[in-house]
Design brief:
single chain, about 350 residues, alpha/beta, ten-stranded mixed beta sheet, elongated
């Protein structure tokens, strides 16, 4: 991809109008082109009411920006769809679509790979290749809508990569996806999940966007947490909780603490009690996630009885808790699994 050619899907509508003016066109042409992009135009020739002279000028200076479906799998258990998308540079990312009947949720990737090093996650095994551009995050949703014919109502930024490690591009993506004449997905329907990069949580809070924040906790103890997720060596749990309280003050949005339950590692009643002490008085809830077992690690999920005992213990302490129902288990639904299997082939 040429350095000078601008990717139009990286622009808000007002920015596209400004771009038109910068290449000697009337601003209204920006609105026309913007409309065609969100009608699914893949090339400038598809834009019927645009003069040929402008199409030629656009072909010289810009490209629309498209990722392509490399592979699609559908779960026979629950209808979850998992996509592998091919990027223009040959990299592969994965995206998951979950249809709950009353809402359609898409889990987007934010980076090619990841450098956070969480021990239970397949995304991080080969490290970080590169950040995704805002349009590459946006286009995952556009391609899912195109493939399924369904409007996406909710987004979770929980796929491969750490959104706050790709902060500027994540921020721009949030602007793009919220555009009235674009996908027009409300901030309250978007959840951003982070390992807990403290300075960025404060920056995100200062934007005062009413998005939902999810924190990967996985242990109430710093030493244990750092064993499970090495990025935790950089920020103490107390620092993360302080940043979350600041986020609450700025947005008044309930925070989710994600907790992957690993048999014999972090699933005791002692841990449940420590979490309750840590989160007491905060507008939050704990999402318990029985670990997705991956071939490269020997972590196992607890028996169901232990999972629900852990939840009940939290609720006894007045901490709202839910157990996440795993979806797409028959199609390598866990983060990074399908991409890794595909690449290893």
């Amino acid at each position: 991809m040429s350095e000078k050619r601008i990717v139009l899907k990286n622009l808000r509508e007002d920015e596209l109008k400004e771009f038109m003016v910068s290449i000697g066109e009337k601003a209204f042409r920006g609105t026309q082109v913007y409309s065609w992009i969100f009608k699914g135009a893949k090339k400038f020739e598809d834009m019927k009411n645009i003069p040929n002279s402008l199409k030629e000028k656009l072909a010289e200076n810009a490209e629309i920006g498209n990722i392509e479906v490399e592979l699609k799998l559908e779960s026979k258990i629950d209808g979850t769809k998992k996509y592998l998308f091919l990027l223009p540079d040959g990299n592969i990312i994965e995206t998951v679509m979950m249809d709950y009947g009353d809402r359609v949720t898409v889990c987007v990737s934010n980076q090619v790979g990841c450098r956070m090093g969480c021990n239970f996650c397949a995304s991080t095994l080969d490290g970080l290749m590169r950040n995704l551009e805002p349009w590459e995050i946006l286009d995952q949703i556009m391609k899912v809508e195109e493939d399924t014919g369904k409007r996406v109502s909710n987004i979770v930024m929980m796929g491969s990569g750490e959104p706050l490690d790709n902060f500027e591009n994540s921020k721009k993506f949030l602007e793009l996806v919220n555009e009235k004449n674009g996908l027009n997905i409300g901030y309250r329907h978007i959840t951003l999940s982070t390992c807990g990069i403290v300075p960025r949580i404060y920056e995100l809070a200062d934007l005062e966007l009413p998005i939902n924040l999810a924190i990967s906790l996985h242990s109430p103890y710093d030493v244990k947490r750092a064993e499970i997720m090495p990025v935790a060596k950089a920020y103490k749990i107390e620092e993360i909780v302080d940043a979350c309280r600041y986020y609450l003050k700025k947005t008044n949005r309930r925070i989710t603490f994600e907790y992957s339950l690993i048999r014999g590692v972090n699933d005791s009643e002692k841990e449940a009690d420590a979490i309750a002490a840590l989160l007491r008085g905060m507008l939050c809830h704990v999402n318990l996630i029985p670990i997705n077992e991956i071939d490269e690690k020997d972590y196992k999920k607890p028996d169901k009885v232990f999972i629900y005992k852990f939840r009940d213990r939290l609720e006894k302490h007045k901490i709202p808790a839910t157990v996440r129902i795993s979806r797409g288990a028959d199609i390598s639904g866990a983060c990074g699994q399908l991409r890794r299997k595909f690449q290893n082939k």
